Amino acid sequence: MTDQYTFQDPTKQFPKAGPEYEQQQEGPGLQQDMAPKPDSGETSYVGKGRLTGRKAVVTGADSGIGRAAAIAYAREGADVVLSYMPEEEPDAQEVVKLIEAEGRKAVAVPGDVKDEQYCVNLIETAVKELGGLDILAIVAGKQQFVESIDELTTEQFDETFKTNVYAMFWLCKAAIKHMPPGGSIINTSSIQAYKPAPILLDYATTKAAINTFSKALAQQVAEKGIRVNVVAPGPVWTPLQVAGGQPPEKLPSFGEQTPLGRPGQPVEMAPAYVFLASQESSYVSGETLNANGGMPTP
Ligand code: NAD
Ligand code: MG
C-alpha cells in the first residue's frame, strides 16, 4: 500500500481487472459487498493540510469516488457533511468513522437528491452544523445501462436527469447563497461526456450537460469569487459499475481500453477534488480535469 506521493509506474500502481471482477448487486450497491474492494484511500491517502479549516459538502460520500473525496478532504483538514442514500448507511458509517479519526467533524445527512427540498435542507444543515460552507463536491450520480432506446423508459430517463443534472442545479443554487469568496464547487462528469457508450444514452447525455452547466455557471459566479470546476473520471472501480452501470460480463475487462490499461481506483480521483477545492487552483475556473487513464478528450 503506497500513498499518493510514492514515485512509481502508473500502469502497475493498481491491478488490471480479471474474472473475479464479474459481480452484480442491486442498486445503489455497497462498497462493503464488493470483492475486490475499491481503494478509496482509507489506509493510503496522506493529507498535507491543504484544506485546513474548510467546510465541505460531498454528495455520494459513502462509496467510490465521493468516499475518496470525503476522506481526502478530512485528511487535508476540512469538516465534511456527507450525502448518500439511506440504504447506504453501512458504507457511510465507515466514512464517518474515518473522518472522525482525523479529528474532523462528520455530519451524515442521508436522503434523495432527486428531491429539491432534500438538496436545500442538505445545504442548510451544512451551514448550521459547520458554521458555513466553502466547498461543494457533487459526486452522486445514477448510471444504469440499457441496450436499446426502445427499452429506455421515461421513468429511468427522468431519474437519471433528476439525479445527475437537476440535483446539481438545486445544490449549486442553494450553496452559492452561502459561499464566501474563495468558495469552490466541483461537479462530476465522465469520459462518457465525449465518448458516449451506446448503452449509456441517458447517462452520457447528463454528463455532457454537467460540463456545459459548469462552464456557464463558472462565468456567472466568478465576480463573487466562487470557482466552479469539474472532474471527469474514466473507468473507476466502484459500486456504480457493479450495480447496473455495466453489463456484468464486461467487468473482467473493465478499464482495459485505456492507454494505461487498467481501471482507476477511487483514491486516484481524490487529488483532483482536493486541487480544485483548494487555493492552489485559484486561477482555474470553468475547467474539466480529466482523470481517465490517458484517453484523449476534446
Ligand atoms: P458510487 O456508486 O460509489 O457513487 C455514486 C453515489 O451516488 C452513491 O454512493 C449514492 O450515494 C449517490 N446517489 C445516487 N443516486 C442518489 C440519489 N437519488 N440520492 C442521493 N444520492 C444518490 O459510484 P462512483 O463511480 O463513485 O460514482 C461517483 C460519480 O462518479 C458519479 O457521478 C459517476 O457518474 C461518476 N463517474 C464514475 C465513473 C466510474 O467509472 N466509476 C466514471 C465516470 C464518472
Ligand atoms: Mg454508494
TrEMBL record:
The keyword Oxidoreductase applies. It holds the Pfam family adh_short_C2. Keywords: Oxidoreductase. SUPFAM superfamilies: NAD(P)-binding Rossmann-fold domains. Residues 1-48, 242-262 are annotated as: Disordered. Transmembrane segments: none annotated. Residues 1-11 have a biased composition (Polar residues). InterPro entries: NAD(P)-bd_dom_sf, Sc_DH/Rdtase_CS, SDR_fam. The keyword ATP-binding does not apply. CDD domains: SDR_c1. Belongs to the short-chain dehydrogenases/reductases (SDR) family. This is SDR family oxidoreductase. It comes from Saccharibacillus alkalitolerans. The lineage of its organism: Bacteria, Bacillati, Bacillota, Bacilli, Bacillales.
